[in-house]
């Protein structure tokens, strides 16, 4: 299960961001995060992430660029960083240090 709490320009994800939790309803609801000028995605509370979770984040980054939304990822779990490096997409992640 994945939960998202929004506070102003920050969305805090908690739980598992995996193939099982990225449902069409979840996708439709949280794609709207990039409808703002700026969004910070805080991943500190993400307990598990797989390639589907990484792919969804990359999709969100692409959508943000197309909508002129400045997106930043903070507090990335080590699993995500390793997965991104193995997939050779780590340079595409807009990582910001809080």
Topology:
Layout: E1 2-7, E2 10-17, H1 24-30, E3 38-49, H2 51-66, E4 70-74, H3 78-86
Parallel strand pairs: 2-3, 3-4
Antiparallel strand pairs: 1-2
Considering the chains and any ligands shown, give keywords for the structure:
98 residues, alpha/beta, four-stranded mixed beta sheet, 3 helices, globular
In short:
This protein has 3 helices and 4 strands, in the order ββαβαβα. It has 98 residues and is α/β, with parallel strands linked by helices.
Order of helices and strands: EEHEHEH
Main structural class: alpha/beta
Report strand %: 25-35%
Radius of gyration: 12 Å
- Please give the largest β-sheet: 4 strands, mixed
What strand line-up does the widest sheet have? 1-2-3-4
Provide structural commentary.
The protein has 98 residues and is an alpha/beta fold. 33% of the residues lie in helices and 32% in strands. It is built from three helices and four strands, in the order ββαβαβα. The chain has helices at 24-30, 51-66, 78-86, and strands spanning 2-7, 10-17, 38-49, 70-74. Strands 1-2-3-4 form a four-stranded mixed sheet, with helices on one face. β2 (10-17), α1 (24-30) and β3 form a beta-alpha-beta unit. The longest helix has 16 residues, at 51-66. The chain starts with a strand and ends in a 12-residue tail after the last helix.
């Amino acid at each position: 299960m994945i939960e998202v709490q929004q506070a102003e320009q920050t969305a805090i994800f908690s739980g598992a961001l995996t193939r099982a939790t990225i449902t069409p309803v979840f996708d439709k609801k949280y794609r709207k995060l990039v409808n703002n000028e700026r969004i910070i995605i805080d991943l500190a509370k993400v307990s598990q992430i797989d390639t589907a979770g990484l792919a969804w984040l990359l999709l969100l980054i692409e959508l943000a660029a197309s909508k002129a939304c400045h997106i930043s990822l903070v507090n990335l779990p080590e699993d995500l960083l390793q997965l991104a490096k193995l997939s050779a997409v780590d340079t595409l992640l807009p990582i910001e240090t809080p």
